[in-house]
Amino acid sequence: MGLRYAFVGAIHELPVPARWLSLSKPRGKRQEARGESPVVVGAIHELPVPPRWLSLSKRVPVGPVWWYDLRMATHALVFALMALAVGQTPEAGIAARYPGDRGIARDARVLLHEDFESGSMADVTRRWTAVSNEGGRALELVSGGPGSASAGRCLRATATLGSNTGGHLYKRLPREVDTLYARFYVRFAADAPYIHHFVHIGGYRPATDWPQGGAGERPAGDERITVGIEPHGVGGAYPAPGVWTFYAYWHEMKISADGKYWGNAMRPARPALVPKDRWQCVEVMLKLNSSPDAADGELALWLDGKQAYHIRKGTPIGPWTGLGFDTRPDGKPFDGFRWRTSSDLKLNFFWLLHYVTESAAQQNNVANPARVNRVWFDDIVVATEYIGPRRTP
Ligand SMILES: [Ca+2]
Questions:
Q1: pTM
Q2: Ligand 1 centre from 374 Cα, in Å?
Q3: Containing domain of residue 232, as a range?
Q4: Residue 38: which pLDDT band, with cuts at 50, 70 and 90?
Q5: What average pLDDT does the chain have?
């Protein structure tokens, strides 16, 4: 009996995580007798995140064409309906359940929510555990935000070379976790120059109410993990402010040429440019290894709700040096992240950082950088599960 290949259907760009969508392939006795191996659509749980390109195919025996076509049409209809349902389901991310993020702070999975809508700048800083706002000039509440013109208020962070290096808000999270998602909206100025460091998440042991040092030093496996999501110019290869890059410190990082340990940068060989003069929804995920010996840690990035980067065991990567590594289709499988050697080290901070120095310009071969460097932040949510973009109220 010959086999005929059939393409059943494809669902593109599923919102993540599509929890209730599932597929199974039971082999019924009657189907077996007919030599068929039917695909049955049922409820599926915990699809690997994110199933952006889910497609189904199966081999069926050649039989009466009308029967075959009817079955395929039925499958196609079921999948069309499921795609529609998934597209509308509030399960796409935590934010999908809370239009305009209203009430999202009460979700048990949410560790931090800040939309800059209530109180003065002093009130805002009291909601965080540490602030850097030299002379009150680095951080200001201004009108605006992502979405409509009536968006309310957001935070404007200004770094002025020769005067200050920018500012930050740091939050020690109310509890320590093993997997952290952090979503924020950011807009860079139309003339945004290169910057030095940007938003970070991670964990210190013990946790502190303020950001710790450690630049140039490799941490012990039970001491510290920090991951920045930062625009990098890569030596001026990309226009300012650069391309989205992970910048990480952990015990397995590689040593730099100068004998120190500087953050290892990780990005795809074809990275995503940081847009200027428009709001972008950025979400980073850091998943710690499940046990000290397991290399099953992960790192992921979503831009405007679409997964852009995902690095884990098996991801093909290029050479790994003290500068970090690129992910690339022709690379070798990554051994995986063993972020920590002790389960006592957990994730416990979110650091909204805008840090600009002269050296950022020098490293990107810019002779006369702009003195004023501005970014706008809004709608920050930190949680233990995927959050997703703010849903239009
Ligand atoms: Ca706001």
A1: 0.78
A2: 17
A3: 94-383
A4: very low
A5: 85
